[in-house]
Specification:
8-stranded mixed sheet; binds adenosine-5'-triphosphate; binds magnesium ion; 9-stranded mixed sheet; 476 residues
């Protein structure tokens, strides 16, 4: 192959093709192939020329390690998501929708580190110095001795960071704007993103500083550029939040130094992102007000969930309305639509309801996105409550996974869920039945009401004589 023969790399997954095509065969993305020039000739095999290699220096698992203590940023929710502080020499990738607050959070983190005597560097390739200064003033951190620079050349950045006295924290905003002059392709392309990241991560490991890379996301919400970027870094954090909500959730999707799916909850204010130490209370705040006004709310159930290592209570809301024409409508916010379809099918097939014929709207209050199957039972409770117009008791939390047979299956961390519910004043929990245990009171004084099958939940919420014949018809 000639040295400059063109090749085409998929901007979504990094697969390389000799010819252009409309669709990447590896990941199925359309229009994602971009011409890139190869860096060198085809890789040569080492076979036959192994003489030059140096002997590896093998060591034992025990021994003196340089294990420097983790840096605490002073932003407790950020430290928690990283597994209890930032690990020196590690690389963290922060992704999130445009305008969600990535730069804001990281500027706050840099300022907090600098204010507590650490050395923090913030390098931006996206904004001008004046814009960052304006933001710093608005956030009230303009006095912190953060070292700020505008740069896009990895060569310049490496020269600044590759010193005997590197910063503790270096923030690169964003990796898509950085370029390596040894590569021919344009900034933002797969090879540039990969090359620039590799260079910076290697430097961070060698010099022992914490590297934070901001990553753009694609329309689908994945970090733009090669998927390998997520493999190269030690920690991947996603910043998420529903538009129109001021809550922002920082979620660890990969962490080599801590639990994944750990979340940090923030509230966006004009002074920047404010930590929310007790998310359950925040997610349920609206509910307390609503209860005050009305006697009981139908179509709502409180789910006792677990995010990472932390229990979080959220309200699940459902609206079931007769479908006027055509295919019934389904709209889901904060939960998996396929999972909803499954629960509707189980309610119809195993419990003799006809939920599926109605328009159904499901919402997780507060903008949280739930991925746990343990929410099944709470979703079912909200649906049944909406359909039969019988409220779930206000002091009850619900959790449990539902199988296709309608059986309710046990979930992990029951005790942590109950404890959080007790802390917020709940007195009863509807949860999966455990073999041998009929009804029990947990150590925290919550009455546990086990549910073995989904039909028991239907009976409990809406005893047959109270069901409205108009909306609930027995299955034929
Ligand atoms: N004056 C202001 N008052 C209140 N909130 C503001 C103000 N200016 C900006 N914000 C908030 O900050 C958000 C922008 O945050 P930021 O620039 O950190 O996002 P980002 O994730 O870095 O975005 P991008 O991907 O475009 O760089 C805005 O969406 C808005 O919510
Ligand atoms: Mg930004």
């Amino acid at each position: 192959m000639a040295k400059s023969a063109p090749r085409y790399a998929c901007q979504e997954c990094g697969a390389v093709y000799p010819k252009w095509a409309g669709r990447c065969e590896a990941c199925g993305a359309w229009n994602s192939l971009v011409e890139e020039l190869p860096r060198a000739g085809p890789p040569k095999s080492l076979a036959g020329s192994r003489q030059g290699g140096q002997a590896l220096d093998f060591v034992a698992l025990t021994g003196d390690s340089r294990g420097a203590p983790r840096h605490l940023t002073g932003i407790a929710e950020l430290d928690r998501v990283c597994g209890g502080g930032l690990v020196p020499g590690s690389a963290i990738l922060v992704g999130g929708d445009p305008g969600i607050g990535k730069s804001t959070l990281l500027l706050q983190a840099a300022a907090a580190v600098a204010a507590s005597g650490g050395k923090a560097t913030y390098i931006t390739g996206e904004e001008a110095i004046d814009q960052i200064r304006l933001r710093a003033r608005r956030l009230g951190v303009a006095d912190a001795p953060v070292r700020l620079a505008v740069a896009t050349s990895v060569r310049d950045i490496a020269a600044a960071l590759d010193t005997a006295n590197p910063p503790q924290l270096a923030i690169i905003d964003s990796i898509q704007t950085m370029y390596l002059d040894t590569l021919d392709s344009a900034p933002g392309t797969v090879s540039q993103v990969r090359g620039a990241a590799q260079e910076l991560i290697g430097l961070a490991k060698r010099r022992g500083f914490v590297l934070v890379l901001v990553g753009h996301v694609t329309k689908e919400g994945m970090i733009a550029g090669p998927r390998v970027l997520e493999h190269m870094v030690d920690t991947v954090l996603y910043f998420e939040g529903e538009r129109g909500h001021q809550f922002r959730i920082l979620r660890a999707v990969k962490n080599r130094f801590g639990a994944t799916d750990e979340i940090g909850v923030f509230e966006m204010s004009d002074q920047g992102l404010v930590e929310v130490p007790n998310p359950s209370a925040m997610f349920l705040a609206e509910r307390a007000e609503a209860e005050h006004e009305a006697g009981g709310v139908t179509g709502a159930a409180v789910f006792a969930g677990i995010e990472g290592t932390r229990p979080v209570l959220v309200e699940i809301q459902a609206l079931v309305a007769p479908s006027l024409l055509g295919t019934p409508r389904r709209a889901v916010v904060g939960w998996d639509a396929t999972r909803l379809a499954m629960i509707i099918a189980v309610l119809d097939a195993r419990c003799g309801l006809s939920v599926g014929a109605n328009d159904i709207y499901l919402n997780v209050a507060g903008g949280l996105r739930i991925g746990e199957p343990a929410a099944d039972l709470a979703v079912a409770a909200a649906l049944i409550s909406a359909l039969t117009e019988s409220p779930v008791p206000a002091d009850t939390v619900v959790f449990g996974e539902i199988g296709l047979s309608g059986r309710v299956r046990p979930v992990s961390h029951s005790d942590a869920r109950l404890k959080e519910a007790a802390k917020l004043g709940f007195t009863e929990a509807w949860l999966p039945a455990r073999p041998g245990a009929r009804s029990r009171r947990s150590a925290d004084g919550i009455a546990a009401a086990p549910i073995g099958h989904l039909s028991e939940l239907v009976d409990r919420l809406a005893p047959a004589e109270r069901r409205r014949p108009r909306r609930i018809a027995a299955a034929p």
